[in-house]
Amino acid sequence: MAIGMHRAGPAYVPADDFFVPGTCFSTHHRQPELAAASVAPLARDPRLRDGYLEAALADIPRLLGAIDRNPYRPTYGCLDRQYWHYRTSSFPSEMYQEGVLPLALVSTTKLPGNRWYGCERIRELAIAALRFNLRSSHRDGSCDDYYPFERALGAAVFSLRAAACAYQLLGLDEPELIGWFRRRAEWILANDESGRLANHHALAALGLLCVAEITADSRYRAAADARVERVLRWQDEEGWFEEYGGADPGYQSVTIDCLAKYRQATGDTRLDEPLARAVAFSRIFLHPDDSYGGPYGSRGTSHFYPHGMELLARRHSAAADLADAFLRSLAAGTFARFDDDRLFIHRLGNLIEAWQDWSPERPAPDERPSPIHYLPHAQLLVRSEPKHHTVISAARAGVFKHFNPAGGMTTDAGLLVEMTDHRLAVSQWHNTNRPVELLREESGDPNGLVVRTDLCWNRCETATPLKQSILHLGMVTIGRWCRTLARKALQRRLITGRSPAPIRLTRRVELIHPAKTPDAPSLRVTDTIELTSPAVSVLRMAYGTDCESAYVAATGGYQEAVLQSWNDLSLHVDALNAAREVTIVREF
């Protein structure tokens, strides 16, 4: 079944077969050719493919436990268990409703090991989840995520794409739901969000395209096209899409996933070159143990969405590398897990889609870039040699991840200092305006960097009954009319805001060419820590291995890196308090 668009003048006009009732906007219905391959393709290992399904189907019982299955309750179809079951939340977060897509997929798709295929009860629950979307949304089609009347773009676009695709998979024709799709799309058209999060707008484009298919309204297709244009404007020439002012490999995979789906569904060739650059950038952050990303990204994430890479794997070696590595990491357990009640829903449908669109062929591996290279816009220094792999972020004050030939790994997520008054200062805040000195060999190749930063105070804030009451009352009475101001205030408090602490860190990171002796170091890190005010003193400090100072939903999950002990610096505290400066040298 073909799904396509034709151009007529400056705007897209739907082809006769684009709006097909009862079909899912899913890329495995249409696989347009990209550019012709220049070399003979290679076969991929078919034994790896089922890792996608095994991971996805193992979580379907958990999904069925998350949804309210009682049709006599007004919360029937709600996937936010904190709201309908535990009743610890006073409103439902629509981000959880993304689970409607995997419900629809297992209900309607014959898959190996899928014992839920054709189950009428699963179909009923998927429809109930769609109808709960309608009941729980605001009149204007918006929805909430973290607090009442938030009208969150992120939750709106994540749930919209999932709901629209589920609606098509289930073959529904319900005017009330179509009306809800229109209201949600109109709200997205009329509203924006503070901060640049490319993945949200890529999802918005994909969701609007789905609504265009359901409603046969070409306005939504034009709006989707405009969102794609915005995302492309936010792509740096180095290949990364902006996430809060920088490059983040984890969220990069989400944006690639959406744009690859969009490309396959529409045949829009303007996406080919940006996607090629995007996957080439992402490939740099594939680690020797097949894990991906980490604290050096602007948002410190390690998650990976495989479906977009599968769509691109036949034509892009970097995408095939990333997809195969993710499958190996599923088998080996080195992937970043999405295991809490909120996060596991995000990747569930994506895993099934990746299995459906698995490519049996791939191009030959590309020639890798220079073993050591610096990305000045992202402020990332990368060494990718056969026996050593190191990524250092100057934008995050020298945060690094280092792998050695014996299979060992070291993660440094930055310096944390607790003062005697119990305030906490951290070094890892993302900032591309810090002064950075690039160290070079005689040949001119980079072999290290020096970065200087003042640490910033970290709130470590949690909710209290009083704070929650003030926030909720404020949003119910006044905040509902100024959602953008409320979001900006919370972003400053939890994500982007920072105030300098009287502590300075100068970090010098040197990439050393190992000698022939097996114990020779390949990485040397020299830190000078200074107290810049006589009024402060230190209680304790450490180098963290798995911490994130700003709030990011997709961090904090389990992967093997969290088993590394933090590097306690208690032995240096007295010297720092006495001399007001201390230098610490580490070799790896």
CATH class of the largest domain: Mainly Alpha
| CATH architecture term of the largest domain | Alpha/alpha barrel
Categorize the overall geometry. Answer: globular
Mean pLDDT: 90
- Count of beta strands: 20
Structure write-up:
The structure is a single chain. The chain is of the alpha+beta class and 588 residues long. It folds into two domains: 5-11 and 43-362, Glycosyltransferase, CATH 1.50.10.10; 379-587, no CATH class. Helix content is 37%, strand content 17%. It has 17 helices and 20 strands. The protein has helices at residues 46-57, 60-66, 81-84, 100-108, 120-136, 153-169, 175-190, 198-215, 218-233, 249-266, 272-283, 307-313, 317-332, 344-356, 465-477, 483-496, 573-579, and strands spanning 5-8, 11-14, 42-43, 242-243, 246-247, 361-362, 372-375, 380-384, 389-393, 399-403, 409-412, 415-419, 424-426, 436-440, 446-458, 500-511, 523-531, 538-543, 567-568, 581-587. The strands form five sheets. Strands 12, 13, 14, 15, 16, 17, 18, 19 and 20 form a nine-stranded antiparallel beta sheet that branches. A five-stranded antiparallel beta sheet has the order 7-8-9-10-11, with no helix packed on it. Helix 6 runs antiparallel to helix 7, helix 6 (153-169) runs parallel beside helix 8 and helix 10 packs antiparallel against helix 11. The longest helix has 18 residues, at 198-215. It is globular and about 70 Å long. Residues 1-23 and 25-37 have low confidence and may be disordered.
Structural topology:
Elements (H helix, E strand, L loop, with lengths): L4 E4 L2 E4 L27 E2 L2 H12 L2 H7 L14 H4 L15 H9 L11 H17 L16 H17 L5 H16 L7 H18 L2 H16 L8 E2 L2 E2 L1 H18 L5 H12 L23 H7 L3 H16 L11 H13 L4 E2 L9 E4 L4 E5 L4 E5 L5 E5 L5 E4 L2 E5 L4 E3 L9 E5 L5 E13 L6 H13 L5 H14 L3 E12 L11 E9 L6 E6 L23 E2 L4 H7 L1 E7 L1
Antiparallel strand pairs: 1-2, 3-6, 4-5, 7-8, 8-9, 9-10, 10-11, 12-13, 12-18, 13-15, 14-15, 15-16, 16-17, 17-20, 18-19
Helix pairs in contact: 1-13, 1-14, 4-5, 4-6, 4-14, 6-7, 6-8, 7-8, 8-9, 8-10, 10-11, 10-12, 11-13, 12-13, 12-14
